[in-house]
Structures are given as structure tokens and as C-alpha cells.
Amino acid sequence: MTKKIIILSIFSTIIIYGIFRKDYKSKKLLESGIKTTGVIVKLEHVKVVDYLIVYKYTVEGEIFKGYINSSFFECNKKNNCIGRKVEVIYYKEDPKISDVDLGEFNKFKRQHFYY
Predict the structure, then answer these.
(1) pLDDT per residue as tens digits for the range 40-63
(2) Is residue 48 part of a domain?
(3) Please, which domain of life does this record's source organism belong to (predicted)?
(4) Residue 106, number of CB atoms within 10 A of its CB
């Protein structure tokens, strides 16, 4: 019984942290988000059904990489996904906090912080 309570407590803590983190990022981007142009670099397979869209953007001469969870879709140079210029919004106090507008590919995003 005690083991179940400990596991449930850990699981609940992880869920609450995830919700808090998403809300924190969304709030910061809404309050102090700055828009810039970035480019989609690749679609990376990370788990059986999980993928990451990797994008790059520059802030004051420094290059940042952003990652967003997505489902699988054809993302390559043929369909103008890899190398596509995209709008990125980042938090001016910490440019690592960002979100990306993937245009027609937004429907594949699993996280939506701003767009």
C-alpha cells in the first residue's frame, strides 16, 4: 500500500510540474515575447511515436536551437519543410524559452505555447 502511495505521489508531482512549466512558458511568451525569423533544421525521431522538430534562430548574434514535440509527418526539403523560414517568438529575458509558428505544419505540434 505504501509503495502505491509513493508511486502515485511521484506521478502526481511530475504531472503538476509539467503543467506548471507549460503555463510558465506560455505566460512569459505572452508577456515579453519578441518575434524573429528562424529556420526548421530537422525532424528527429526520439521514441516509437515521438518526434522533435528542431529549429534555429538568432538573438543578438547568438544562435539558439529550439525543440518542439510533434507527431510524424513528412518533413523534408521536397515539401519545403526542412530549411523553411518560420516565425519564432522568444522570451527576451531568456531566449532559450521559445515557440515556433510552423504554418501549415502547426497541426502536427503536440505543444502549443504561443501559436
Answers:
(1) 999 888 877 788 899 999 999 999
(2) yes
(3) Bacteria
(4) 14
91 lies in a domain? yes
* Stretches in the chain below the pLDDT threshold 70: 1, 8-9, 11-24, 112-115
Task: Output the pTM of the full model.
Answer: 0.74
Residue type at 19? I
Contact 99, 109 (CB under 8 A): no
pLDDT of residue 46: 81
- What is the pLDDT at residue 41? 95
Domain range for 16: 2-108
DSSP 22-78: HHHHHHHHHHHEEEEEEEEEEEEE-SSS-EEEEEEEEETTEEEEEEEEE-----STT
What long-range pairs does 12-20 form, CB within 8 A, spacing at least 24? none
Closest CA to 54 of 18, 93, 88: 88
